[in-house]
Amino acid sequence: MSKQHIFKKKLLSWSIKNTREYSWRNTEDPWKILLLEVISQQTQLDRANKYYQKFIKKFPSPNEMSIATKKDILEMWSGLGYNSRAVRLHEASKILSKNSFDSIYPNFNILPGVGEYTKNAILSFAYKDKVITQDTNVLRIFSRFFGTKNPQKFILENQKNILKNIKSRKFNEALMDFGSKICTSKNPSCSICIFDNQCKKFIQVKQSPKPAFKGSNREIRGKIIKYLLVNNNVDISSLNTIIKTEENRLRHILKKLESEGMIKIKNKKLIEISS
């Protein structure tokens, strides 16, 4: 029995009793899958699920989101962070209100904010394509078990064989759960791991350290958006007293937000959320 066969057999067997239950795991609706995947980026699934339930109730299809204002979307998104995700999702909904998922299959990465991972998630969960979703957790598992320093290449070369005779969705969900519960980035539960005597865990996927949030541009961006959601036509100098940062830094961040289509700067002084 090959190592790849052992890997998938043990993983799927483990998942029978360890699958996390979420409502969206029973859907093949590509819109719901896209919505969940965008919301869950850089966010724990339990927290993402709360936002997902709120969004899917308000926007059951791209049509409803496409006619909402950017301000409406950002208000619902408040507290989730990385506001640019909400803006890209809004832009994607406008495209999908005029073009079905089927019409752009399999090139979902033409949608704003959709990268390779989200594209493959839609292909696997909605269209049952034989692809392995590749996020940091998945790459870490493959790197440790198969002892490869290039898990992306390994997956692309072997996913057809690994996914033979099994549903890609079940396999991908099992990978997500295993990476969350057992094969974690820090302090993995090796003592109860089903692969304990076969894992090459000393080889790890190289990860860039996460920058500190406190005092970062990301924190300031969030504060600006939060303030502008309840205050229109704000003067830059007034905003500076609220945000409390260097004026040059503030102007740089505002310029970036404007280039991303999130805010408007009128007469070089007044700021508001873009419509």
What can be said about this structure in brief?
55% of the residues lie in helices and 4% in strands. The protein has 275 residues and is mainly alpha-helical.
Question: How would you describe this structure in keywords?
Answer:
3 domains; Endonuclease Iii, domain 2; Endonuclease III, domain 1; Arc Repressor Mutant, subunit A; 275 residues; globular; mainly alpha
Topology (elements, then pairings):
Layout: H1 3-18, H2 30-40, H3 45-58, H4 62-66, H5 70-77, H6 83-96, H7 101-104, H8 116-125, H9 136-146, H10 151-162, H11 168-181, H12 217-228, E1 234-235, H13 236-243, H14 247-259, E2 263-266, E3 270-273
Antiparallel strand pairs: 1-3, 2-3
Quickly count the helices.
14
Q: How many distinct beta strands?
A: 3
CATH class placement of the largest domain: Mainly Alpha
Q: Average the pLDDT over all residues and give the rounded result.
A: 89
CATH topology label of the largest domain: Endonuclease III, domain 1
Described by the principal axes of the CA atoms, the overall outline is globular
The overall number of domains is: 3
Q: What's the order of the H and E elements?
A: HHHHHHHHHHHHEHHEE
User: If classified by CATH, what would the architecture of the largest domain be?
Assistant: Orthogonal Bundle
How would you classify the helix and strand content by structural class?
mainly alpha
